[in-house]
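Why run this: before we spend reagent on co-expression, it is cheaper to look at a predicted model of the complex and decide which construct boundaries make sense. The entries below are exactly what would go into the expression plan.
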Amino acid sequence: MIVAHLSDLHLGHRAFDRTDRGQNVRERDLAVAFSRAMQALVEVAPDLVVVSGDVFDRPDPPPGALVALTRGLEALHSTLPDTRVLMIAGARDTPRRSEDAGALAALDAFPNVDAATGSARTVVLSRYSTQVVLLPYRSALTEPLPAPEPDPRQRWNVVVAHGRLLRGEGGGIPLEEGRWDYVALGGQHTYRRVADRVVYAGALERVGPSPWDEAAEEKGFVVADLSSGAIDFHPVAGRPVVAMAPTRVPPGDPEALQRRIEEITREIPGGIDQKIVRVRLRGPRPDDLVSLPPGFLADLVDRALHLSVELEDDPREPVGSVAPLRDRVVAALGTADDERARLLERVFLPGGGS
Amino acid sequence: MRIQSISHPSVPGLGDVALELPSGLVAVVGGDGRIRRLTQQLVSGRLEHAVRRTAPIVADPALTRLPPELLRLLEDGGDSDRAESVVESGSRLLAMLDGLDRLEDARSRLGRLRSADGASAPGPAPEALLARIRELESAPEELAALEAELRGLREDDAEVTGDLEFATMEWLRERQDAETQLQTYRDRARELKQRLGELMERGEDATCPTCQRPLASHLSTVHAFLEDDWEDVVQDGRWWRRRREQLELKPERLQQLENRSLRLHAATEATAEKVEVARSRLSELEESRARLAAVAGSSVSGPPRTPGAADPPEVSREVWAEVDAALATAARDLRREARDRLLDRMARILGRITAGRILSVRWTDSGQIDLGGVEGSLHPPAEEDGAAAFVAARLALSWAVSRRIEGVAPPTILADAFDRMEEAVQVRTVELLQRMVGRSFEQIVLVTRGEIVDLCPEACDAILELRRDAVAGPTAFRRVPAGLGVLRLIPGGGE
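The model came back. Tokens follow.
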């Protein structure tokens, strides 16, 4: 029994206000990543595909996102007509109002597709003697919480859920470790094997508000062979995201700042063109950035898909420290002879002057 | 510190309200603009008869030195939604935490000592004059800022008035156009109806309207043609009728412009009054300074002090003046440094939430904020950038306070301005707020229309939604699912 596990597709995600032929570039990047994943799935030829939530980036996805999803499903169905696709709604697919099922519910009517959006649902694939428990986002937040149980009559038992996994005693949907053949989790963008057969597949692209936090991670999907217990991660290529380590530049020196930014961006293999780049600087003040030669930053911004220049706090520099009050007044006086010093002593209450 | 609960016996439009607020990022969602404003006032404890319980009851000791209006600024941004107001008052707040109040006390004490020194001198008490001067010292900056604000408001007002006139003309023109079109179609429909009636009545004897010959065998063709024409006229006529009905009421944009124009008029009048008050305060300041100079002069030339009065010792007039000026300079420097710190943090926050589109914030001589981007100044700022600047100023202030007191700042309540920001900026702000919760704040309350909550419900620790239930009863805040659900992996089991 081969299960392909995808998650956090975030189709319809738009960012950085860059368009190409009328479509937001990042929205298209995600559609492309999904399409690549579908092509790779055709080669893997799984018996079952599960998608553990956040299929769309928002409960009211743009039409392009629906088109990307349905095209991918159609491509899969035309090549692997017997492969079932089971999806659950994540936080992003779920409208605030419980009476609204959200756009994902429309996919439930597709051939070979189940899309659970509200409450928990169990699907039995008798052909594979497999029970799959679908736990969408809302089911994990609405009392009474479901208490899924493996079906001993089935050869394989699988859970698909969207949420935060915690260990030990406490609240939440209980999942007994070792009793499930595969637990497919969604809601985290990073691939993580939490336990032997408990896996967050991660997103297909770097889609968080700060994609640089995921720059070093590979993105893709998981293929689990329930018979052998093998769990393999299949990377999917996405747009390059570059997160440079913080670099120190003296404040108030625009020339040094320009030189350093030039050095940093030159050091990036393949350059910055069409990449999502973050440059972190320690030392400069915001005003230093606008003191750079006109057009310098604008040119870099034009070349990259997105360039973010972030000014970080310098951990060596105490923030908010202020000089003692008496010292300030003495400095303002210019001279602190006896006469002035005595008068100052009299006007500052003991202990109140620093 | 966080708000635990709020209750009110009767909020107009909401009725009896009892709210429990957890810590973390709490979104209060729904209602129209008026209700959201009332909710904001309710949460910030500004609504009369509201009972608000906080934990701990007493704020951080460092904050208890602050006057109530500055504490309110920290919590809900004060009475204005302009970033300039937050920076102006926030700088004073930070400077007070750095010791501005102690400098002011020292100046007051100096005035009293000076007064004692010259107690036997005739004329007004220098202590009272010094105290009054201290109160009025910020009048020039206040006046400059208010005048700049008034100029800005008048410019906005002129722009909106122009837009309003244009939009009104456009609406009237479109309505007239729709009316004319509808009338044309009605006339055409009447004509066709009459013609079809004639055809039905006279059959093959009916004549062609062009050549006046009997239609004879062409009757069915002409009849079909006129029927098609009739169908088209009816369809198009219906469309124009709906269009005219739509245009009966003023379009939403026009209504918005009218509302904005009204608000701007009100704000302009209120600011003009404030300018007058600031001008009179400036005059009083100049007068008080002149009087103090006269008093100092008369004190020096007045009768000699009683022999044996050792305290205070003999201090020359110049030294009194120098020390007073040094205290004033130190106070001014504290305020300026606090403002620079605040602007620096604000720029970093803006850089983050706008993904680098806004890079810097500059304080102009006229007390205005000038935002800078990669291609230079963004003046005049777009409305959404103005809102982002206001939110960033609020967050920068709370951040700076939490750093200064080495603890968490009081709860921060964000409302209208947040909803006015761009959607992507809202998402990044929520991500930043999540990171700040626990470090800079214990609680942030976001009173919002709700789009942001739909976009990232997992980011909120709690969502309270306002619902007007026609069946179950009056409007009420209901807790709806938020955050991510918990899946509990329990050890054991296995085959």
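Chain B has 14 helices and twelve strands. The radius of gyration of chain B is 34 Å. Bring this page to Monday's planning discussion.
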